[in-house]
Automatic annotation (TrEMBL), chain A:
This is Quinol:cytochrome C oxidoreductase. It comes from Flavobacterium kingsejongi. The keyword Mitochondrion does not apply. Keywords: Membrane, Transmembrane, Transmembrane helix. Coiled coil: none annotated. PANTHER family: PTHR43044, QUINOL:CYTOCHROME C OXIDOREDUCTASE QUINONE-BINDING SUBUNIT 2. The chain crosses the membrane at residues 12-30, 145-167, 188-212, 232-252, 280-298, 310-333, 353-373, 393-411, 418-435, 450-475.
UniProtKB/TrEMBL annotation, chain B:
Signal peptide: none annotated. The keyword Transmembrane helix applies. It comes from Flavobacterium kingsejongi. Keywords: Membrane, Transmembrane, Transmembrane helix. It comes from the Bacteria. This is Quinol:cytochrome C oxidoreductase. InterPro entries: ActD (IPR021776). The chain crosses the membrane at residues 53-76, 96-120.
Length: 496, 174
C-alpha cells in the first residue's frame, strides 16, 4: 500500500492556496468598466510612447480584414493615425468580441461608406467608446480564459490517461498491466476535474463571462454566420452535449476501476472480460465524443472558423500530455520504491509513446497549418494570421517545445531509459501542450491582451495542486499492483 | 599453426544459447554462429558490440535534410524567385511550409536508403556473392557454432558434445 507522503500533500495544498490567490487576484484586478480601461490604456500609452499601443490594440481587425497580403507589414500600420485605425476597429467590434473580422464584412462596408463622409466629432467619440468596450471585454475575459485553459488542460490530461488505459486493455498489452493502478490513480482526477469544468461551462452559459461569443444574444442578433450555426451552437444543447460526454467518460472510469479491483479478488477472469468489453465500447464512444468535445469547448470560441482535423489535433495534444503524466507518476513512485516490478523497459516504452505521439501531434499541427496557409482562403486563414501576429513566440515556441525538443532528446534508445532525461523532456512537453491550449483559447477570448501572468500561472498552480492531491489520494486507496490481471505475469517480466 | 575449427551443430535455439554461454565461460573463442532465424539475445550472449547503424541513419537523415533545403533554397528562392500563385518567394522561411513535405521525404529517403546500403557493405552482401554456408542445414532447422581449435582437440570435442550438440565436426579451414 502506498501512503501519501505528507510533504507532497503539503506541497499540493500550497499549490492550491497560491493558485486560489492568483486566480482571485486576476479577477480582482480585471477592469470593472470603461473608465478603468481608459486609465489602463493611458498608462500603457505613456509606457510605450503611444505608438506601440495604437499598433497593438488596433491590429487584429485591420489585419484580419486584409488577410495575409501583409503578414509582415505590421510596421506600416504603426504610422496610421490612431483615429482612422479606431474606425476600423470600431466597425469590427460590435458584431463579435472575437478577434477576427471576416464575418463582419457587411458592417465593415457600411462603415467604409461612412468613412468617406467626414467623421464628425460625435462619431469619433462613439467609436472611441466602442473601442474601450472592446478592450474591456478582452480584459474581463482574461482571468476567465486563464481559468478555462488550465481547467480543460488538466481534465483532458486525465481523459488522455483514461484513453490510454482503455487502449491498453483493448489491445491486451503485455507490458503495461503493472502500470494500471498508476493510471487508475491519475484518472481519478477526471471526476472532480469534469465537475469543475462543467460548472465553468454553466457560468459561461449563464453569461457570467464572455468566453463564448456565440452565447451572447446581442452578438448573435447582428452576426448572420453565428445565426446560421445556432441550431448547433445554442446554450441548452451545448450543455446537454457536455453533460453526456462528461457522464459517459466518468462512467467508464468508474466501472473500469471497479472491475479492476474486483478482478483482484476473483477466481476467474469474468471481470477482466467485462473490462475488456467496456474499454472497447468506451473507445468508440470516446472518439466520437472527443471530436465533438473539441468543436464545442475549443473550436467554438472562434465561431467563425472551422477545421476538419481539429478533433484529432486536440486529441493528440492531450494524449501525449497524458502519457507524459503517466511517466512522471511512474518515475516518482518508482524512485520512492513503490513499484517493485517496474523496470527501465517500462520507462522505455512510455518514452517511446511520448516520442511517437509528439511527432503525431506535430504531423497534425503542421497538416492543419500548412493546408490553411497554402490555400490562403481569407475566412480560414485569419485564425493563423492573428496567432502569428500576436502570439508569435507562443505559437512557434510551442512547435519547438512539442516537436524539436522531444525528437532530439528521445530519439536515442539509451536516453529513453534515463529518468532525468524523461523528466526533462516530459516537462517541456507538458509546458508545450499547455501553451498549445493557451494558443487555441486565448486569441479568441483576450486577443492581443494576452500575457502569462498572475492569473494564468495561478490557475495552473491551482489545478496542478488539485491534480496531485486527488491522484495521489486515489493511489493510497489500493495496492499499486493489479493482482489477477491475466497479463500481469508477462508485464512483471517485461523487458525490451 | 593449424587452422582447424570445430563445428558444433545444435537443433534447438535454447540449447544453442546455453552452449554459447558455456563456451564463453570456458574461454573458447567463438568465430561465428549460423542460425536459420534471428535468435533473441544471441548477440548479447556472444558479447557482440552493439550496432551503430542507427547513428549512421540519423546522420544520413541530416544529409537528406540539408540536400532538400539547399536544393529548394537555390531553385525556388535564389535562382529564379518567380511568383507562383502568390506564394512568397522572398526568403526560404517565408515559403517554408510548402517545402516541408519534400524536406521530410528526402530526409527519410536518404536515411533509409543509405542505411540499407551501409548494411549491405558492412555485412558484405551483393547479388553475385558466393554463399558462405558451412552446412546447408543451418538455413533450415540447425544451428551451428564455429570455434577455433586451440590446445587439446579431443578435450574440446568432448566439451562441445557435453553442451548438447547433435554433431561435432573438426574441419581444416583454408
Amino acid at each position: 500500500m502506498y501512503t501519501f507522503s505528507s510533504k507532497l500533500k503539503t506541497f499540493s495544498f500550497i499549490l492550491m492556496a497560491l493558485g486560489v490567490l492568483g486566480i482571485g487576484y486576476g479577477f480582482w484586478t480585471a477592469p470593472k468598466n470603461t473608465q478603468d480601461v481608459e486609465k489602463i490604456l493611458a498608462a500603457e500609452e505613456q509606457h510605450h510612447g503611444g505608438h506601440a499601443t495604437a499598433e497593438a490594440g488596433h491590429e487584429p481587425h485591420h489585419e484580419a480584414a486584409t488577410a495575409v497580403e501583409a503578414p509582415h507589414g505590421t510596421e506600416q500600420n504603426a504610422v496610421v493615425p490612431a483615429a482612422t485605425d479606431a474606425t476600423t476597429t470600431a466597425a469590427a467590434f460590435p458584431a463579435a468580441d472575437s478577434v477576427h473580422a471576416v464575418a463582419e464584412v457587411p458592417q465593415h462596408d457600411v462603415h467604409a461608406d461612412a468613412d468617406k463622409h467626414t467623421v464628425s466629432e460625435a462619431d469619433h467619440h462613439k467609436e472611441h467608446e466602442e473601442h474601450l468596450e472592446h478592450v474591456l471585454h478582452q480584459l474581463q475575459n482574461k482571468p476567465w480564459a486563464a481559468l478555462y485553459v488550465a481547467c480543460i488542460f488538466f481534465m483532458l490530461i486525465a481523459l488522455g490517461v483514461l484513453a490510454f488505459y482503455a487502449i491498453q486493455y483493448a489491445a491486451q498489452a503485455g507490458w503495461s498491466p503493472v502500470l494500471f493502478r498508476v493510471m487508475e490513480g491519475i484518472t481519478s482526477y477526471l471526476l472532480p476535474g469534469s465537475v469543475i469544468f462543467f460548472i465553468l461551462l454553466l457560468l459561461c452559459g449563464f453569461h457570467f463571462n464572455h468566453l463564448f461569443v456565440w452565447m451572447d444574444p446581442e452578438v448573435v442578433k447582428v452576426d448572420r454566420l453565428i445565426q446560421g450555426k445556432s441550431g448547433y451552437l445554442n446554450v441548452p444543447f451545448f450543455l446537454i452535449r457536455a453533460a453526456i460526454f462528461l457522464i459517459g467518460w466518468n462512467l467508464y472510469r468508474h466501472y473500469s476501476r471497479k472491475y479492476s479491483l474486483l478482478q483482484d479478488g476473483a477466481n476467474d477472469d469474468l471481470y477482466y472480460k467485462k473490462s475488456f468489453k467496456a474499454s472497447a465500447a468506451f473507445l468508440v464512444f470516446f472518439i466520437v465524443s472527443e471530436s465533438i468535445m473539441s468543436w464545442d469547448w475549443i473550436m467554438s470560441v472562434d465561431p467563425h472558423w472551422y477545421s476538419t482535423l481539429f478533433g484529432w489535433y486536440v486529441f493528440a495534444s492531450f494524449f501525449v500530455s497524458g502519457i507524459t503524466v503517466i511517466a512522471f507518476f511512474t518515475l516518482y513512485l518508482k524512485s520512492k520504491g513503490h513499484l517493485e516490478y517496474v523496470n527501465t523497459s517500462h520507462f522505455h516504452d512510455l518514452a517511446k509513446f511520448m516520442f511517437g505521439i509528439s511527432i503525431f501531434w506535430t504531423y497534425l499541427w503542421f497538416s492543419q497549418f500548412m493546408l490553411i496557409w497554402y490555400a490562403d482562403i481569407p475566412e480560414e486563414v485569419t485564425y493563423f494570421v492573428t496567432r502569428i501576429e500576436h502570439y508569435n513566440l507562443p505559437f512557434f515556441g510551442m512547435v519547438a517545445m512539442n516537436f524539436l525538443f522531444p525528437v532530439l532528446l528521445l530519439l536515442n534508445t539509451d536516453f529513453k531509459r534515463i529518468p532525468w532525461l524523461i523528466v526533462m523532456a516530459g516537462t517541456v512537453i507538458l509546458c508545450g501542450h499547455y501553451l498549445d491550449f493557451f494558443n487555441m483559447i486565448m486569441p479568441a477570448t483576450v486577443g492581443d491582451r494576452w500575457f502569462i501572468g498572475v492569473s494564468e500561472i495561478g490557475s495552473v498552480l491551482f489545478f496542478l495542486g488539485l491534480f496531485i492531491f486527488v491522484a495521489f489520494t486515489a493511489l493510497t486507496k489500493e495496492s499499486l499492483l493489479a493482482k489477477r490481471n491475466p497479463f500481469i505475469g508477462e508485464s512483471k517480466h517485461f523487458h525490451y | 599453426m593449424s587452422n582447424k575449427v570445430i563445428y558444433a551443430i545444435y537443433n534447438d535455439d535454447d540449447v544453442l544459447m546455453d552452449a554459447v554461454k558455456q563456451t564463453r565461460a570456458a574461454h573458447h573463442h567463438i568465430e561465428e554462429v549460423f542460425t536459420p532465424f534471428p535468435v533473441h539475445g544471441l548477440d548479447k550472449a556472444m558479447g557482440l558490440a552493439p550496432t551503430r547503424i542507427a547513428i549512421c541513419a540519423f546522420l544520413y537523415g541530416l544529409v537528406g535534410l540539408s540536400v532538400a533545403t539547399a536544393l529548394m533554397n537555390y531553385v525556388m528562392i535564389e535562382d529564379w524567385p518567380q511568383d507562383i500563385g502568390g506564394k512568397p518567394s522572398f526568403s526560404y522561411i517565408q515559403n517554408m511550409p510548402a517545402f516541408v513535405p519534400i524536406m521530410f521525404e528526402l530526409t527519410v529517403f536518404f536515411a533509409a536508403h543509405l542505411m540499407v546500403i551501409t548494411f549491405y557493405m558492412r555485412s558484405r552482401l551483393w547479388p553475385f556473392k558466393t554463399a558462405e554456408n558451412p552446412d546447408v542445414r543451418t538455413t533450415d532447422d540447425h544451428f551451428l557454432m564455429e570455434v577455433a581449435v586451440h590446445g587439446n582437440e579431443d578435450e574440446m570435442v568432448t566439451f562441445f558434445q557435453n553442451t548438447g550438440a547433435v554433431e561435432v565436426k573438426v574441419i581444416e579451414k583454408h
